[in-house]
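Run log // design_07
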């Protein structure tokens, strides 16, 4: 089987080269890898770095948006150009370690699930760790509330709806129109997969959250409100 790993990048000059190297080196049993990089209109050196990666690795697809359109739009561009049997989203920062990818594919190989999410939140908050920061603590509880809402609306238990690590078969998108352009991609794809009858299996992962001073782009209140509305909207409409 082939796994298309889509890496959307917006102003990630400090991390994108390293994350691509990590993905390249990661062995994934019984899967061939297809790496797709999507520059979402970056204004830093990300485009030049991706061009260099593409020149050095002809098998890596490098795509570009002429202007910033949002993570959801970048992921959709990657999906449209993908050739894999399965799709996996990988952020271009270093929060998510590719060493967990084989853990995500394992339930697929065992026939236990067709859709697998990597959950960061199947735990209590780390009050002595990352959640000692009030913003991160709010982010933790906001994510848990959105995941609980997902579970209640779609009758399927999910602990981390907002996780980047989403693995699903490309064929699952048949008949699905993805409309999101930004971080609302996460609730939209989740809601539409669940409405189509796919059960989400979660596997535990850990991440290294970066701070807002390091380039973190998610706004807990703004994007959380949009996610809340998106979950409700797609429960009842396409």
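design_07 sequence
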């Amino acid at each position: 089987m082939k796994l298309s790993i889509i890496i959307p990048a917006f102003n990630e000059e400090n991390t994108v080269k390293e994350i691509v190297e990590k993905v390249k080196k990661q062995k994934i049993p019984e899967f061939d890898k297809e790496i797709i990089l999507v520059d979402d209109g970056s204004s830093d050196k990300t485009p030049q770095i991706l061009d260099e990666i593409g020149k050095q690795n002809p098998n890596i697809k490098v795509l570009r948006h002429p202007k910033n359109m949002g993570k959801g739009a970048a992921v959709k561009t990657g999906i449209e150009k993908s050739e894999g049997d399965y799709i996996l989203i990988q952020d271009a920062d270093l929060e998510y370690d590719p060493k967990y990818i084989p853990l995500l594919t394992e339930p697929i190989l065992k026939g236990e699930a067709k859709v697998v999410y990597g959950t960061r939140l199947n735990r209590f908050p780390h009050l002595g760790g990352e959640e000692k920061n009030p913003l991160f603590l709010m982010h933790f509880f906001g994510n848990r509330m959105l995941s609980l809402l997902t579970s209640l609306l779609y009758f399927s238990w999910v602990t981390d709806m907002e996780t980047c690590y989403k693995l699903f078969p490309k064929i699952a998108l048949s008949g699905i129109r993805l409309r999101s352009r930004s971080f609302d991609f996460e609730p939209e794809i989740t809601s539409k997969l669940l409405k189509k009858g796919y059960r989400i299996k979660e596997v535990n992962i850990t991440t290294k959250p970066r701070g807002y001073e390091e380039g973190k782009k998610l706004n807990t209140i703004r994007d959380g409100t949009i996610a809340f509305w998106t979950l409700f909207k797609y429960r009842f409409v396409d």
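The beta strands are 2-9, 32-40, 61-65, 86-89, 115-119, 166-169, 200-204.
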